[in-house]
Amino acid sequence: MLELLLIPFLEATIRTATPLAFAALGELVSERAGVINLGMEGSIIAGCLGGAAAAVLGGSAVGYLGAALAGLLLASLFALFVVRLGSDQIITGTAITVLGLGLTGTLFHLAPTMVGVGATLPTTGPVPLPLLSSIPLFGRVLFTQPLPTYVLYVLVPIVAWWMRGTHAGLALRAVGESPVAAAAAGVPAARVRALAIGFSGIMGGLCGGTLVLAQVGSFNENMSAGRGFIAIAIVVLGRWTPYGTAGAALVFGGAFALQYLVQTLGLALPYQLFLAMPYVLTLVLLATLHGRAIAPAHLGR
Amino acid sequence: MTEVLLAFWDGAFGSVYAVLSATLVRATPLLFVGLAVALAFRAGVLNIGAEGQLIVGAIGASAVALAIPAWPRPVVIVLMLVAGAVAGGLWAGIAAVLRRRFHVLEVISTLMLNFVAAALIGWVVRGPLQEPTRVYPMSESFSAAARWPFLVPGQRLHLGFVLGLVTAAVLWYVLQHTAAGFRVRAVGAGARAAASAGAVPVARVASRAFLASGMLAGLAGASEVGGVTWALYEGISPGYGYTAIAVALLARLDPRWVIVTAIGFGALEAGGAAMQRSAGVPAVAVQIVTAAVLLSVLALSRWRARDRDEASA
Amino acid sequence: MSASALALTDIHKTFGDTRALDGASCTIRRGSIHALLGENGAGKTTLMRIAFGMIAADQGQITRHGAPVHFRSERESIAAGIGMVHQHFMLIPAFTVAENIALGGRGRLDAVAAAETVRRIGAATGLAIDPQARIADLPVGAQQRTEIVRALAHDADVLILDEPTAVLTPTESDELYRWMRRFADGGGAVVLITHRVREALAVADDVTVLRRGRSVLQGVAKSLTEDAAVTAIVGDRLAPDVSAALMPTDGEVLFALEAAAVRDADGRQRLRPTQLLVRSGEILGVLGVEGSGQRELLRLLAGRLAPSEGRVQRPDVVGFVPEDRLHDAVIPAFSLTENTTLAEAGALRGRVDWSRETVRAQTIVSDHDVRASGVQATMRSLSGGNQQRFVVGRERQRSPRALVAENPTRGLDVRATARVLETIRAVALAGGAAVVYSTDLDEILSLTRRVVVCFDGFVREVSAPADAEDRTPYARALVGADA
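Structure tokens for the assembled complex are given below, as produced in the milestone run.
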């Protein structure tokens, strides 16, 4: 029973959580600088396309690079409007997302071969880590995963350390709290915001790259499937901390994996309950956080 | 290129059929959600949850249509409208309460509620409202009483379009010519002055506008199931709630212009579909146009980040 | 090396059409405390923000130790050894003391070292703060110490303090002054922006007085009397025209405060329990430097604020002209007609009769000499003077008997100023009552002989001197000379 159900469930949880965690980690950094990046979805789908196209040209490593650059490209446009022109974050983000979905969909239709339709994409399958993967239960779940998952194992602690343990991380958090006060202390607030958005774009791109190159193996229209918006929920549920965000990504991954489990088992429970649960949980958390300053004070402005 | 544009034109405006069965039919839900977004933004409420409110409105209207299939047609239609509006209003009401009582940013809460609504409709069409054979994820087809009348024989344009035009006119009148509408505009344009100079209860006005916005989006859902699909489907909205933001902003949040921009975006979608059929240009290309419109409005207008404390104070 | 730690010469700065600085100079010697004195709006803070790189001067020169410098941001001035403690603290409330102090650095963040820096500076200077405390949890005095420690942690040798004692108790102020002296004795320099003349003369070595953006007095504190300083601050302008000033009356009481007091959200008392009557036919003049309680006093009388203790009696409808016109009085994107309606927005029901509203707007425009292309023009398209005449006119129209005005002539030209003051006078002459706060003493004296001065939350009535043109008692009360 355990072997048959629990391990596949846990594996699916990690697999589903991996791209989500990339996007959420990017969104986290952007939000800690006070910017809600609703363009994340656009960066992700751009990453999917960029990853596929670059992988056709130069293999999977180049694919991930292309994914990151494509995500960065859309995020740069977002930063141009939000930081440079002072445009509303929400409307700009919506526009960037629509742009990303439209551009990738159009390119996909016009030049399908470019994004690897018909060709076999060089993908990165699960790589069992020596020794670690032979640990009972956890070995298979945690250490028989594709490369991006291992990157996250390293990246989350690095981001957490960077935010806590460097002056740049401190400056990032200060800008999210009060750009004016941060500037008075000598922090170049606009540059910090722009760089944070850029990082979130790269992470969004890698989320897309992971989807294409480590999971699905091909590009499809709309394959980002709302992950950019889910990332925003994950950051809230993770209470704007890196480890919290990683944990919240697992919660969402688990909830999505649970629906397959429920369907497999043929339980009478509606699986949509598990789809909705993480969002409801996020809303409840937001309401109960009221009065306790956990969100960056300048978020969204 | 000419060929592409011709295909686009044919699909959007090239024939009576294109106008009355494609463009205006697609414009109808955009009209309602465009008005919903315009009203909310006018009040300084960033409601990006029109998508979810539309879905819940569609569920509400469908539930009524399926519950009373044999009642007189006018009664069924009116009750569908009421159910759609109430359901959409309640859905927005969750975010309105979270905003007013718990200071939760409406941007985040409405976004979350869009996903909850998507899960809800997914369950409804496989659960309580699923068709009797329990095979397809959709509801039973509505009875004749719940199918809204067509406006022109042989064309797909339905009652919802006229109701949308009337709603736009009413909303314009309310905003421009009534005290309540004036308060909404004052709260959105200058919350501090409204409170200080006019003793306007800013939070209450914003909450009510939020509810009304949800009701308008709910009407879009009722109109789609009653006038177009005659059944409840999971994919009832291909993102109308998001396109609505472009519709409303391009109209500069003026209900009269929302009529024009909604038809414009309806034509864009109808033409885009035709373009794909006959010229091989993907329909999603219209999304690039939508994004370009939004970004141009942002670059050219004063839609700048405002101090949200002011709007929610 | 020059003896001047920081010198600003002939600085000019214009914001929009307001000339904030018009040839201001100030030389700060090493090892000295330098008091920068002046009324509200004299340009003290602007001058020091320029020195700190926050804003750029239009014209003028800045030197450090005799060498010209040009700061493009706070970052550059901090690196050059200048520190500034702002009147409204520039700290991140969610951060700890140590984090706030570390902010702006580069490379790895060493929390232990940052905390150690706080303790070391605390031990060396007596400015002790818990490095792990969150700013939001600290009292204002400790927040101020954090700002000072932060500047010292960046090795500042010039420290600018903007109204530092405004938030401190007398004991805390004394401690701060003693610390400033030790800092100066150690070779540093302190710029003390203040309006408290007596304290400034007691602690400072040098004094610069700014008036209307110019430095009008630069001298040694010891050789300066309080009266000379006060005269320099308020200026030896022409005697105010007091011929039309209204006398107190014994008419019907329109406003009454009975032990009314105001506390802010943090529980601090902004206005202490106050007794006050304003009668029909009177103008009550209110004086006070920023943050002295006049803001709360005016809002109590206008019915825009509820007292936290005591009672307020006032007419049902009170016209109110707030200082921040574009945020609190009008909506810039709305037309004049809509801004007319705005004043009734909360009470309106049903349909708005726009033809009636248009007529009302036209009445305001013609009665109060508002120059606009029409009542459909947006408020934004009007000049500041016309906007203000519109606001005053609107408030007078809705409440002919009671008007509260907060610095109503700020930024207006002579003609607009005269027009606004005329309207205020008309309210009292018609049997109503007006309450006017102004930063311009002469303006108050030209309006009325009944004046109260706010200082530190106390409202003190200043009895009119025998000589109607004598400004001394008011000026002294205003700058806390007799407090």
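Chain C is about 35% helix and 25% strand. Chain C has a mean pLDDT of 88. Further analysis is deferred to the final report.
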